[in-house]
């Protein structure tokens, strides 16, 4: 199977007064047609920068793409001229951003905002554009789409605005949707609605989704495959089952252990990851997680491990998976195998 | 209840939103918190949970009703007593970036309460700050720095140290962890649990992350559109939620376990919460409730003890 989107060795830095921040330091992943891939990680791990790089949305003045390839449908899209990129954006790749409050133009009717995209990328006549917009609003579950068409963003709730953004992303039937924290700003009951909607659309339209999130619950809910990012690198990737049931990187263990488990009655103390992520002005030479890792060995400080293959789909960058490494008590997602 | 430290009695907080329109952020809420207990308050945005927390601390004056702390009505305190109340009740805020003055050094931020109450001076004050910093897992040399030099988790620790500085009995924590990363959230929750044990604190813990609330709370109250819908011990609430809103809320939490997906029945609520300026008649949840009946539109359900220590406001539980 050829992949729809292929990201290889992506490196992105930002120029700041304090020096160069190496935000993304060699990221690899791919998405197949019709698949949902989740990128998980904490703030500052480079997950959003990765998405912005793919979309060509990095601020030109301060950012530097230092290396790597991004191929979409076999075509290199990294560093494509603005005009060519705009053709792909919207029509082939749709973006749903995190904050529905600030991503819509407050002075434009929501109908016109969606119609704008369709107008740009298709040559439908005017009345059909309007029909298509209303159809899209209905598709994403907005009641009274005709009425909503001529309303302004402030007249809509947060969940409704997020639906408008989804409608906009879907407007030209893209093959790929990049959703950057699409439910973070929403309440749980609304989050459930939006996740259901995304899942439903993905199944009906066979769209691929790249979802970026920090919420492992959302990951389990929607994704088929997961890439875990830490300090600008993908440190583990695999299918949802592999990541949750058989994680092979101590950082993934830490993430899974930090969540309270409400399946069993006894209240256990949470197991946090002590310390904080490394400074990306001067990222460590070895494994970036080593300073916080309780299993860190000498080699971890000095040398970054390569991706060790655990199964065909499961890779982890950790020296513990080396045949020579000591076998550590598999904290294996701690206590989750009741 | 005789051993309750805090009693909230029929508290209302309305905000005038122009003309004769009022936003009923908190509408007739009563509950009590015992000494040494952690009471969790959950609800979605706009449910009034933060307003309730702020009213309890005294940052808002209640429109009606009373808040009784240690047997005294806090609305009627004057002079010395009012100052003393301000000392015993402290607050930890949601946004560790906005709640620390960027132009003050950590030393002065933490000692602000000490200074305001004239508790300690000079060397004693300094030592107290050092001691507090160590207590919350920071180092004494951090006292010289400014807030921007710290990460989110560290800032939240500073906020906690500031609250602890005046030796309070009661702390209202308004979404103390929602701005933090998962691994850091666990650090702060553990710290708050340790401090509770060491200092004999009582918490009102406001959050929308139900998993964390269950973890930290002894009892939980669920709010919707300014009303309390259900209140129970946290295990009872999670094992047997009575109110349809609580049921929907619990079922909507994404469980970080792919094996569970599909096993659980998800109740996906339709629509959005109505405006708190013109709330629905009768039960406020009825417009989204899968079990809504005729009576729900007409009569506001009574706040009743449907099970032992398990309170609910819903017509389904009329005996």
Task: State the main characteristics.
heterodimer, A: 338 residues, alpha/beta, Rossmann fold, 2 domains, 8-stranded mixed beta sheet, 4-stranded antiparallel beta sheet, 11 helices, 31% helix, disordered C terminus, B: 319 residues, 12 strands, globular, ABC_Ni/Peptide_Import (chain A), ABC_transporter-like_CS (chain A), cell membrane (chain A)
CATH superfamily membership of the largest domain in chain A: P-loop containing nucleotide triphosphate hydrolases
The succession of helices and strands of chain A, N to C, reads EEEHEEHEHHHHEHEHEEHHHEE
Helix content of chain B: 25-40%
Give the low-confidence spans of chain B: none
Organism (chain B): Exobacillus caeni
GO molecular function (chain B): ATP binding; ATP hydrolysis activity
Domain ABC transporter (chain B): 6-250
Family (chain B): Belongs to the ABC transporter superfamily.
Q: Could you characterize what this model shows?
A:
The complex is a heterodimer of chains A (338) and B (319). Chain A folds into 2 domains: 3-223, 3-Layer(aba) Sandwich (Rossmann fold), CATH 3.40.50.300; 248-321, no CATH class. In chain A, 31% of the residues lie in helices and 23% in strands. Chain A has helices spanning 47-55, 82-88, 110-121, 126-139, 145-149, 158-170, 188-205, 216-222, 240-245, 250-258, 298-302, and strands at 3-16, 19-32, 36-40, 63-72, 75-76, 93-96, 176-180, 208-213, 225-230, 233-239, 308-309, 315-316. In chain A, the strands form 2 sheets. Chain A has an 8-stranded mixed β-sheet, sandwiched between helices. In chain A, strands 2-1-4-5 form a 4-stranded antiparallel β-sheet, covered by helices on one side. In chain A, α3 (110-121) crosses α4 (126-139), α3 packs parallel to α6 (158-170) and α6 runs parallel beside α7. The relative contact order of chain A is 0.14. Chain B is α/β, with parallel strands linked by helices and 319 residues long. Chain B has one domain: Rossmann fold. In chain B, 32% of the residues lie in helices and 24% in strands. Chain B has 11 helices and 12 strands. Chain B has helices at 49-57, 79-88, 106-110, 112-116, 122-135, 152-164, 182-199, 210-216, 234-239, 244-252, 294-298; strands at residues 4-16, 22-34, 38-42, 64-69, 72-73, 89-92, 170-174, 202-207, 219-224, 227-233, 303-307, 310-313. In chain B, the strands form 2 sheets. Chain B has an 8-stranded mixed β-sheet with strand order 6-7-8-3-9-10-12-11, with helices on both faces. In chain B, strands 2-1-4-5 form a 4-stranded antiparallel β-sheet, covered by helices on one side. In chain B, β11 (303-307) and β12 form a beta hairpin. In chain B, α6 packs parallel to α7. Chain B starts with a strand and ends in a 6-residue tail after the last strand.
């Amino acid at each position: 199977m050829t992949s729809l989107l292929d990201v290889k060795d992506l490196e992105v830095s930002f120029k700041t007064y304090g020096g160069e921040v190496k935000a993304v330091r060699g990221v690899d992943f791919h998405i197949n047609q019709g698949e949902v891939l989740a990128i998980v990680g904490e703030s500052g791990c480079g997950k959003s920068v990765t998405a912005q790089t793919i979309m060509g949305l990095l601020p030109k003045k301060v950012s530097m793409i230092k290396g790597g390839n991004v191929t979409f449908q076999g075509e290199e899209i990294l560093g494509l001229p603005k005009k060519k990129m705009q053709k792909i954006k919207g029509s082939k790749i749709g973006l749903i951003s995190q904050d529905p409050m600030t991503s819509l133009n407050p002075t434009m009717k929501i109908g016109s905002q969606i119609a704008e995209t369709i107008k740009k990328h298709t040559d439908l006549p005017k009345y059909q554009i309007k029909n298509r917009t209303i159809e899209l609003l209905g598709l994403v579950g907005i009641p009274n789409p005709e009425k909503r068409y001529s309303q302004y963003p402030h007249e809509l709730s947060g969940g409704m605005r997020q639906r408008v953004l989804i409608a906009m992303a879907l407007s030209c039937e893209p093959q790929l949707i990049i959703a950057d924290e699409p439910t973070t700003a929403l309440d749980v009951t609304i989050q459930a609605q939006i996740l259901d909607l995304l899942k439903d659309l993905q199944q009906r339209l066979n769209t691929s989704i790249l979802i970026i999130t920090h919420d492992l619950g959302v990951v389990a809910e929607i994704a088929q495959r997961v890439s875990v990012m830490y300090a600008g690198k993908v440190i583990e990737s695999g299918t949802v089952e592999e990541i949750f049931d058989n994680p092979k990187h101590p950082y993934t263990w830490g993430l899974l252990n930090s969540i309270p488990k409400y399946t069993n009655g006894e209240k256990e103390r949470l197991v946090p990851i002590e310390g904080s992520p490394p400074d990306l002005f001067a990222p460590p030479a070895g494994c970036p997680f080593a300073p916080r890792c309780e299993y860190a060995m000498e080699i971890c400080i000095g040398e970054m491990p390569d991706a060790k293959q655990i199964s065909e789909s499961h890779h982890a960058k950790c020296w513990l998976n080396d045949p020579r490494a000591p076998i550590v008590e598999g904290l294996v997602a701690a206590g989750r195998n009741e | 209840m005789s051993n309750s430290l805090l009693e909230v009695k029929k508290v209302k907080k309305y905000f005038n939103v122009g003309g004769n329109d009022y936003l009923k952020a908190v509408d007739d809420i009563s509950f009590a918190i015992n000494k040494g207990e952690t009471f969790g308050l959950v609800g979605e945005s706009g449910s009034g949970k933060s307003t309730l927390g702020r009213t309890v601390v005294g940052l808002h004056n209640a429109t009606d009703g009373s808040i009784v702390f240690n047997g005294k009505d806090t609305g009627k305190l004057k002079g010395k007593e009012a100052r003393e109340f301000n000392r015993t009740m402290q607050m930890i805020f949601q946004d560790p970036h906005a709640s620390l003055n960027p132009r003050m050094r950590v030393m002065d931020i933490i000692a602000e309460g000490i200074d305001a109450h004239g508790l300690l001076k000079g060397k004693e004050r300094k030592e107290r700050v050092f001691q507090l910093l160590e207590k919350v897992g920071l180092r004494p040399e951090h006292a010289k720095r400014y807030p921007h030099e710290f990460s989110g988790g560290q800032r939240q620790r500073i906020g906690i140290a500031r609250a602890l500085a005046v030796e309070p009995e009661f702390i209202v924590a308004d979404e103390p962890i929602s701005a933090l990363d998962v691994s850091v959230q666990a650090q702060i929750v553990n710290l708050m649990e340790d401090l509770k044990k060491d200092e004999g604190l009582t918490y009102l813990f406001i959050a929308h992350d139900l998993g964390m609330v269950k973890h930290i709370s002894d009892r939980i109250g669920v709010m919707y559109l300014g009303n309390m819908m259900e209140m129970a011990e946290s295990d009872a609430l999670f094992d047997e939620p009575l109110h349809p809103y609580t049921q929907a809320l619990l079922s909507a939490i994404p469980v970080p376990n792919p094996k569970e997906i599909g096993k659980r029945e998800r109740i996906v609520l339709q629509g959005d919460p109505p405006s708190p300026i013109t709330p629905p008649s009768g039960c406020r949840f009825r417009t989204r409730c899968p079990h809504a009946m005729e009576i729900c539109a007409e009569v506001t359900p009574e706040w009743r003890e449907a099970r032992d220590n398990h309170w609910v406001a819903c017509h389904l539980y009329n005996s």
